[in-house]
Sequence to fold (121 residues):
Amino acid sequence: MVVLGGAAACGTGQRESEASAVAEAFSTAIASGDAAAACAVLSPETAEALAASEGKPCEESLKPEELPSGAVSDVQVWGDRAQARTAGDVLFLVELDEGWKVVAAGCVPQGERPYLCEVGG
Fold:
């Protein structure tokens, strides 16, 4: 039983690390103004919705200058969902077959209501 508990804890740490790496890649892309790199780590649904809302590809629809960035300071994983925090942003991620992807970014809390997000959400 102790061995299984240790394995589960190790797996959780690895999953947090993987989610953190994707959140960091998104935040770094935003900080450098690289919309293509940011779009590459968005979930397919989020990228498609962003493109549809603007009527042009994700890379042309995403506006890095309008989104906060910063180093990832905290990641929490619940099953196939995760939340990552930077100094100025909250990102939400989902684990898909191809790995972790950002589903919402530029999110701010709204008290008891759901987060308000600039991208996705």
